[in-house]
Design a protein that fits this description.
448 residues; alpha+beta; Uridine Diphospho-n-acetylenolpyruvylglucosamine Reductase, domain 3; Vanillyl-alcohol Oxidase, Chain A, domain 3; 3 domains; nine-stranded antiparallel β-sheet; five-stranded antiparallel β-sheet; oxidoreductase; FAD-linked_Oxidoreductase; FAD-bd_PCMH_sub2
């Protein structure tokens, strides 16, 4: 079977050494089960893999290094990008060329020596390209906007195996900046960088039994902070188990994450109202170099099976906040995290060059994630209850925070109604045979 496909990287078949690791990734739920894996090292390798898929009538999926995955690929060709992870920085132009498999940490490591930073996310191990294709709300979002707003150009392999340089002014450039992976495989992108070398950030952890008002305090505090302040709050219950830090075991906690693009002195002054909300179990706020920005959220690095729901909100209701806190309490059916992020600022402003990112008037995002070791049906009621609590404030979805299978209506809700016909027509044009199997599929529609 593999004689028809040759790449500079490995071509792996089920049962061979390394196949399962490459097929699984970070998300253990809904795993890919391809007929073969192409370990690509170059754009030409991608073209060869797509040509093979076209000859055999196979679907193609791309394994980046992100957290999200919808329904896994059954059969077909899985392109593994981990060997194509180069980053080239132009410090004078303040840009970086980022290859398909580069993680945000690799981009940050390359840009930091020049006093520059990308619009990276909370988890440095996530793939920069896949994150950016889905919009990307990062640590500097309220100051500088969406990651996709900062893309200058893409290199794209389309379903016919051709290569395009996608630049401003084209329909594809508009769609790729926030529209996901439905239109082909981005093998590289040029992004703008911002002059940030350090930030004031980290986390404050509160025991909700001792600081029951912290969610309301954080909510009111977000109404007053400058755009340089990006923050979030997460609620979860730690089991009383030795694998967790002793000071957190058995506690129902709220963790406030802070990323301030200003001086440590100003940052410390701004967070005083939060510190005054109650006793602090853990205080990890400090001035830190941007290369250590992953410490702000300090997200787990080990793979898990999980399912999530997500909504963008135009506001928060105090009663709903209280009920959300209880959903992630000790009685939750599985380990669950309920997270709110403060939006607005530069995220609310349209970029100079239009993109497909919608719902820029959202004030907050809600993300509920549950571990599904015992099956999705165990946590589905919790996810549905959380979304019901915010139904009156929900205005749509963000692709980057949607983990799990999505219906067409779910995907449509991430975009402005008037943009959906443009997206489906473009999909029909560039991928008429629906070759690409993606997390958030946009269906092709033939135009009249």
């Amino acid at each position: 079977m593999t004689k028809a496909l040759t790449t500079n990287g490995p071509v792996l078949l089920p049962g061979t050494n390394g196949f399962d690791e490459e097929a699984t990734g970070y998300q253990l739920n809904h795993p890919h089960r391809p007929s073969l894996i192409a370990g690509i090292t170059s754009t030409q390798d991608v073209r060869d893999a797509v040509a093979y898929a076209n000859r055999t009538g196979a679907k193609v999926a791309v394994q980046f290094s992100g957290h999200g995955r919808g329904a896994g690929l059954e059969g077909g060709v899985l392109i593994s990008t981990r060997r194509m992870s180069g980053v080239r920085v132009d410090p004078q132009a303040r840009t970086a060329w980022v290859e398909a498999g580069a993680s945000w940490q690799q981009v940050v490591d390359a840009t930091a020596p020049h006093g520059l930073a990308p619009l990276s996310g909370s988890s440095p191990g996530v793939g920069a390209v896949s994150y950016t294709l889905n919009g990307g709300i990062g640590l500097l979002g309220r100051r500088y906007g969406y990651a996709s707003d900062w893309v200058r150009r893409f290199e794209l392999v389309t379903a016919d195996g051709g290569v395009q340089e996608v630049t401003p002014g084209s329909e594809l450039f508009w769609a790729l900046r926030g529209g996901g992976g439905s239109f082909g495989m981005v093998t590289g992108m040029e992004i703008g960088l911002v002059p940030v070398a350090r930030l004031y950030g980290g986390g404050l952890t509160f025991d909700l039994a001792q600081a029951p008002d912290i969610m309301d305090v954080w909510h009111e505090w977000t109404r007053t902070v400058p755009e340089d302040m990006t923050s979030a709050v997460s609620v979860l219950s730690y089991p009383d188990a030795p694998m967790f830090p002793e000071h957190l075991r058995g506690r129902h906690v709220a963790q406030v994450q802070i990323s301030y693009a200003g001086s440590a002195e100003d940052g410390a002054r701004l967070v005083r109202p939060l510190r005054a909300a109650g006793p602090v179990l853990a205080d990890k706020l400090r001035e830190l170099p941007f290369v250590e920005s992953g410490e702000v959220f300090d997200e787990p690095k080990q793979p898990h099976p999980y399912r999530s729901e997500h909504r963008l909100l135009n506001g928060l209701d105090s009663q709903a906040l209280a009920k959300l806190v209880s959903l992630a309490g000790p009685s939750a059916p599985a380990f669950s995290v309920i997270a709110l992020r403060h939006l607005g600022g530069a995220l609310a402003r349209s970029p100079e060059i239009p993109s497909v990112v919608a719902h820029r008037d959202a004030a907050y995002s809600l993300h509920v994630l549950s571990i599904v070791d015992n099956g999705e049906e165990v946590v589905r009621p919790l996810l549905e209850a959380a979304m019901a609590l915010v139904a009156g404030q929900a205005i749509g979805r963000l692709l980057a925070q949607s983990f799990g299978p999505m219906t067409e209506d779910h995907v449509r809700s991430a975009f402005a109604p008037g943009d959906w016909p443009r997206l489906t027509a473009l999909k029909a044009q560039v991928d008429p045979d629906r070759r690409w199997h993606v997390n958030h599929p946009i269906p092709g529609r033939q135009t009249a």
